[in-house]
Design a protein that fits this description.
It is built from eleven helices and 27 strands. Strand 12, helix 7 and strand 13 form a beta-alpha-beta unit. The longest helix has 19 residues. It has two domains: 153 residues, FAD/NAD(P)-binding domain (3-Layer(bba) Sandwich), CATH 3.50.50.60; 206 residues, FAD/NAD(P)-binding domain (3-Layer(bba) Sandwich). It is an alpha/beta fold. A six-stranded mixed β-sheet has the order 6-3-2-10-23-22, covered by helices on one side. A four-stranded mixed β-sheet has the order 1-9-8-7, with no helix packed on it.
Length: 465
């Protein structure tokens, strides 16, 4: 934390006993701003506030981890291209003047202006605020499919990516050792991904290349299932066609217009009547807003907190919301809300921070308005599908544009990421499993996918609508 500004005093209370909750103290001459969540929206909000306020406010960031996770590159972590720390950016190291508090928000007392949270060691705490920015993001979207919660794993956090990397490697090694029956070996080499959006498409694309690198003599079978009639249904059809063509050419079995009927320990039942024996079910059907916002007692739209164009909450001018958890009016498309994308979340975080500062007398509030700049889907190797500024691209050119975009968008680690890409192009991948994350520690139904459940520690938070 940066030293206090000249002319102010820090009030340091005595350390609480293990049974007493942490409570922040009030510094009368500086307003207290609390940002909840450090995803794309929360990180940009905290960084912009740090630069805008310049010590004129006490800024606190509440987040379960001490890093910002660049989610778009997570499939490359699970595929062994990037080392885990490459896609994480230190919050303390990149947010000067921002106090980091490790913890998961449990509830918000709007009338008392307090955020109650649980720390990583189970201790309860609360943060008082004069301005609140809710950027709690989203969690895995669940569907009422029997067996999915018990047998599938999501792909929203670093623990899940590390688990998948180890799990895929382990299944390929067990299949190769030859001690199982042919049917069991075939099941181990079969990987089912549910959801043909951004995440599912990239996981399947990179996953197939990863297993081919592990064992080319016995190629793995990757199946990508989606209920929609095409991959990437939210994007231009030309991008969908590019992704479909690349995946099929690579050997991925793309099943559109198909859904999972039931998941079991031995495999997956599809709604067309086929049973697919497998030991791996990867759930990428999308996300839903963090249920915390639905518990506030405020107006929501499909689980997202309704806000004004200035990102303030109606009737609560001291509360702002942005990112996946906020239903932000799309001024470029009247009557609609902005989609839940990283592109919007990052820009909303910046706008929310500027409007928070304006509400404290530093600037003028502005409505959020942003035209999409295009989309990019990394399909592994030199392949990608992109449409920067509406221009559809495919092949190596799209791959170069996609990686260039990611390097520009990352708030740190650019050189390290580029170095890993160069090494992956020149050297074979390391097919080893570290065993750091076990299956039971990354449940699908959790509000904290960024944290692995630890033995003997506080149970992972699970919220249900």
């Amino acid at each position: 934390m940066a030293p206090p500004a000249e002319g102010t005093r820090e009030i340091c209370p005595p350390a609480p006993s293990p049974r007493e909750p942490y409570v922040t103290t009030h510094t009368p001459d500086r307003p207290r701003i609390v940002v909840v969540g450090a995803g794309f929206a929360g990180y940009q909000a905290a960084r912009t506030l740090s630069r805008r306020m310049r010590g004129r406010a006490r800024i606190t960031l509440l987040n379960p981890t001490d890093y910002f996770l660049y989610l778009p590159l997570l499939p490359q972590v699970s595929a062994g291209i990037l080392e885990p720390r490459r896609v994480t950016v230190s919050l303390r190291g990149t947010l000067p003047g921002v106090r980091l508090v490790l913890g998961e928000a449990d509830r918000v007392d709007l009338d008392g202006s307090k955020v109650h949270y649980t720390g990583p060691e189970g201790r309860q705490g609360e943060l008082e605020y004069d301005r609140l920015v809710l950027a709690v993001g989203s969690v895995n979207k669940l569907l009422p499919v029997p067996g999915v919660t018990e047998h599938a794993h999501g792909f929203r956090g670093m623990p899940e990516a590390l688990y998948l990397r180890d799990h895929v490697t382990r299944q390929m090694e067990l299949a190769a050792q030859g001690t199982d029956s042919p049917a069991e070996r075939s099941a181990r080499r079969t990987f089912v991904v549910v959801g043909g959006g951004y995440t599912g498409t990239e996981v399947a694309a990179h996953g197939k290349m990863f297993t081919d690198a592990l064992d080319r003599r016995a190629p793995a079978r990757w199946i990508l299932v989606d209920i929609a009639d095409r991959l990437l249904p939210e994007l231009d059809r030309r991008l969908s066609s590019t992704a479909d063509r690349v995946l099929r050419r690579r050997g991925v079995d793309v099943r559109t217009g198909t859904s999972v009927k039931e998941a079991t320990e031995d495999g997956v039942h599809l709604d067309d009547g086929e049973f697919v024996p497998t030991r791996t079910l990867i759930w990428c059907v999308g996300v839903r807003p963090d249920p915390l916002v639905s518990e506030l007692g405020l107006s929501v739209e499909r689980g997202r907190l309704l806000v004004e164009p200035q990102l303030s909450v109606p009737g609560r001018p001291e509360v702002f919301a942005c990112g996946d958890a906020a239903a932000v009016p799309d001024l470029t498309r009247p009557g609609e809300f902005t989609p839940m994308t990283a592109q919007h979340a990052a820009r909303q975080g910046k706008t929310a921070a500027l409007n928070v500062a304006a509400s404290l007398g530093h600037g003028v509030q502005q409505p959020y308005k942003h035209h999409d700049l295009g989309f990019a889907v990394d399909l592994g190797g030199v392949q990608a599908a992109a449409n920067p500024l509406g221009v559809p691209l495919s092949g190596p050119l799209a791959g170069a544009v996609t990686r260039g975009y990611h390097l520009a968008a990352m708030p740190g680690n650019r050189v390290r990421v580029a170095a890993d890409w160069l090494l992956d192009a020149a050297l074979p991948r390391q097919g080893v499993q570290l065993g750091l994350v076990r299956s039971w520690s990354v449940p699908l139904d959790t509000a904290t996918p960024e944290q692995a459940r630890l033995p003997g520690g506080p149970a992972a938070t699970t919220r249900k609508d």
